[in-house]
What does this fold into?
Amino acid sequence: MHQKTDWTFLVTGVGFALLWASASAAGKFGLRSVEPLTFFTIRFLAAGAILLFVSHLALRYPLPAGREWWQVTVFGFFNTALYLGIFIVALQHVAAGITTLAIALNPLLISILSAGFMRRKVAAKEWLSIAIGMAGVAVATYPLLQTNHATLGGILLIALCMLMYSIGSVFYASVPWKLQRLVINGWQVFLGGLMLLPFALIFTQHQNTFDANFWFSLGWLIVPVSIVAVQLWLRLLRDDAVRASIWLFLCPVFGLIYATLLLHEPFSGFTLAGLILVMAAIYLGQVMNKRSTQKSH
It folds into this structure.
């Protein structure tokens, strides 16, 4: 029984990291045709509409009620509108490979926020796995920091959006949800898109080109990223926000691989060394912690 649960958690975590890490590269392709806020507002509204259609019309899941509306709105505000809205603007000023470094901030931020707001004690092994994971990400991205450039404003925006994502994750984990994950995801994405819509309309300056490049990028960001990856992430968060956050260490590694294959950024011995450290962090934070929990029972 425990072994099955471990494999399910492993497949869910790796699947999430593989898909979530592709967002930066896919976003870079889309930005060649369409302005950032316009591009991602369309993405959020389309993904939300699809999820809500499936949730309420196809599967007949109930609508949020009472306080649940406030909860999905707050979650959408941090997890979609602020996090991804700021991220896509920052992506114009920071290379795709460098943006992967910022994802490593999330496990530490989630751990700190969980300890502060949810009164959850972070185990020593979890702190150690976070430190090893951050070291692995730093090693893997070191060559990119030497060859790519980023503005100070872009770096500050990346740090800010990571903070928003961490707040959203801790908020989600703190709510005793009764809604289905599909419903939560659909409404938080759709409401986040509505929040961004006025800014997209106001700040659009150039003519957008809705070509094949745009549609392919949009389709990838909607289905594998906004729908599938977020569903996997919410499933991980239901178990434990801190344990779930360890999987974010895989995202920079996969992101570097995508950047190498699709954007022709270098893959070196540093990348391989970083990958080994990241895998060690995940083993320590996931597998060993799970075994300790089982022995305690």
